[in-house]
């Protein structure tokens, strides 16, 4: 079972202790901004650190599995949103470069026409008119 299935079946909710404003359901995470997700990530990470204890004498206690699941869910949604943001940025940059290259190509085509001799220009005009 993946983390989202597990989150749905355990009915994970995020509250103020998780850095959420009010109660947020799992399906609402993609609607949040990256900044809000980052704040939640930090708050949940703090919870994980305070619930898990390390000791030289006694066995180490692990973080609450629900807190760990919340951490992984927020991390997965934030990662997906960042990948989408980066892909959109790359697409915009590529479109801009294509536009610049098209302008350069148009200039080169115009320049090559300007290098035609008078006879070549007359011949082209005659061919185009017929």
What does this entry show, briefly?
The protein is built from four helices and two strands; from the N terminus they run H-E-E-H-H-H.
What does this structure look like?
This protein is mostly helical and 130 residues long. The chain has one domain. 15% of the residues are buried. The termini are far apart. Helix content is 67%, strand content 3%. A two-stranded antiparallel sheet has the order 1-2.
**Low-pLDDT regions:** none
Given the helix and strand composition, which structural class is it? mainly alpha
The count of domains is 1
Instruction: Kindly state the percentage of residues in helix.
Output: 55-70%
Order of helices and strands: HEEHHH
Which band does the percent of strand residues land in?
under 5%
- Whole-number mean pLDDT: 90
How are the strands of the biggest sheet laid out side by side? 1-2
Instruction: Summarize the main sheet.
Output: 2 strands, antiparallel
Rg calc = 30 Å
Number of E-type strands: 2
The helix count comes to 4
The shape is rod-shaped
Question: Could you tell me how far the N terminus lies from the C terminus, measured between alpha carbons in angstroms?
Answer: 71 Å
């Amino acid at each position: 079972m993946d983390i989202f299935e597990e989150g749905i079946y355990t009915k994970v909710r995020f509250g103020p202790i998780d850095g959420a404003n009010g109660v947020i359901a799992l399906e609402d995470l993609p609607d949040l901004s990256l900044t809000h997700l980052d704040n939640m990530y930090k708050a949940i990470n703090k919870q994980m650190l305070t619930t898990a204890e390390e000791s030289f004498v006694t066995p180490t206690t692990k973080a609450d599995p629900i807190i760990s699941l919340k951490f992984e869910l927020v991390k997965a949604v934030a990662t997906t949103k960042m990948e989408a943001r980066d892909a959109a940025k790359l697409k915009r940059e590529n479109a801009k470069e294509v536009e610049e290259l098209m302008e350069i190509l148009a200039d080169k085509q115009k320049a090559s026409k300007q290098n035609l001799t008078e006879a070549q220009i007359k011949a082209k005009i005659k061919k185009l008119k017929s």
